[in-house]
Amino acid sequence: MRVLVTGAGGFVGPHLLQHLQSTQPNHSLFGTAYNPNAQRLPFVTYHTVDLLDYDATLAVLQETQPDVIYHLAGQSSPSRALKAVWRTHEINVRIQLNIFEACLELDTRPRILSISSGEIYCGGATDPEKMPVDEYAELQPSNPYALSKATQDLMSLQYFLSHKLPVVRVRPFNHTGPGQQSSFV
To answer: Hey, how many other C-beta atoms are within 10 angstroms of the C-beta on 30?
Structure first.
C-alpha cells in the first residue's frame, strides 16, 4: 500500500509515520513538507512542496499514486488565525480543495483522512448540559481557525456525496506530546 502524509514535517506527521512504519513495514511511505528544514525520517520519501499550488499538488499525487492520504497539512494555531484570518482560510481550505480536485483530475480514489477540530463545536466551549460533545453536536465555530476547520469538514462531506471520494472526517480535540511547539502547550 502507498501512503501519503501531508504535513509530514509538522507535529503529528512524524509520530504517524513512525507508527505506520512499525505496524505496516511493507507500506511505501511518502510525506509532504512545506519547510525544507523539517524533520526527515529515513524510511519516508519526502516532497518539499507548497500544497497551495494546484499544479504542484497534482504532481505529487501523480508521482506518489497514494492508496491512502492522511491530510495533516495546514495552519493549526487558533491564535495565529486571529492575526491572519484570510491566510488561515486560504491554507486550510485551499490545500484540501487542491488535494480533492487533483484526485478527481487523476481519476483516483484514495481513502483520505481529513482532520478537522473539536474547535468547530463553539470553539471548544459548550453548554455543560450538552456534554460530552459528540459528532452530532451543532457546529458553532467561534473563531477564524474553527471556521476554516468547519469548512474543511463540510467540504469533505460534499466531495464524498458529490464525487464518491472516500473521505473520512475526524474532529480531534487538543493533543500534545513530544515535539509539540511550546506555543501550543
So the answer is: 23
**Average confidence (pLDDT) over 68-80:** 92
d(CA 25, CA 80): 37
Cell reading at 105: 483530475
Instruction: Report the Cα 144 to chain-centroid distance in Å.
Output: 17
Helix (H) or strand (E) holding 69: strand 68-71
pLDDT at site 181: 52
- The reported pTM is 0.90
- Dihedral-angle region of residue 34 (phi above 0 means left; psi in -120 to 50 means alpha; beta otherwise): alpha
d(CA 88, CA 94): 10
Cβ distance 77 to 145 under 8 Å? yes
